[in-house]
Amino acid sequence: MKKKILVLSVLLLVSAAALFAAITKQDAENIAIKDSGIASSDIEYMRTRLDWENGERVYDVEFYAAGVEYDYEIALSDGNILSYDREAERIWNRSSQDGISRDEALLIAFENAGISEKDASRVRVEMDRDDGVTLYEIEFRSADYKYEYEISTEAEILSYQIEKRGLSRVGRDAVVIDRAEAEAIITSYLPEGVEIMGFERDYDDGRYTYEAKAYGDGIEYEVEIDAVTRELTSYQEEVERWR
């Protein structure tokens, strides 16, 4: 009888282990590579991270080979491929024959943002070509802000945008700062000598904001602050001649 109970317990443990088995990061990468038909030796760059998709834990596997970007979502529980995408337009290279490398472009973005690499998360870098210009599209997060950059292979920042995440809502009866104080705050974010060309207060999606547009030295600026908390919620610079 004891032997039967022992055998039954072992079977139950094996069944439970199989039920809750999860694939490893290496397993997920191998599954994606095999499905793509690309040889491991041809992969220029690979990044794999855990994520959530529709309430399910997944591996997000991204890699580049022969000028094509591959992006897979693979279920952590059983290795099933939930989605995949391949893009030929966005080419990633460690270095560009025509200019700076990916790492150099990323360093420029970090230095401009005033943060270190260790403080950045969800970093994404892609090489693209728009209106005949080859550039790096860079995204990352740090603290409560999301950063987006477009940097040419000549090391020029063509545009960048900062957006605050996790904004709270207020009622329409909330107390807001006056226009003069708002202009002073916004001006503090602009380079010296750049004047505000357009200014307005808005209430949208449960938030009061002051928004301003400015222009100087061929660059267009857009700044938004929270009209209640006074904090910066969005900042954008764009080289006008780039467009």
Question: Please, could you describe this protein's structure?
Answer:
The protein has 243 residues and is α+β, with helices and mostly antiparallel strands. It is built from four helices and twelve strands; from the N terminus they run ααββββαββββαββββ. The strands form two sheets. The chain has an eight-stranded antiparallel beta sheet, covered by helices on one side. A four-stranded antiparallel beta sheet has the order 1-2-3-4, with helices on one face. β10 (207-216) and β11 (219-226) form a beta hairpin. It is globular and about 60 Å long. It starts with a helix and ends with a strand.
Instruction: Provide the succession of SSEs.
Output: HHEEEEHEEEEHEEEE
Strand ordering within the main sheet: 5-6-7-8-12-11-10-9
Which descriptor suits the 3D outline? Answer: globular
- How much is the radius of gyration in Å? 25 Å
Task: Give me the CATH architecture of the largest domain, please.
Answer: Roll
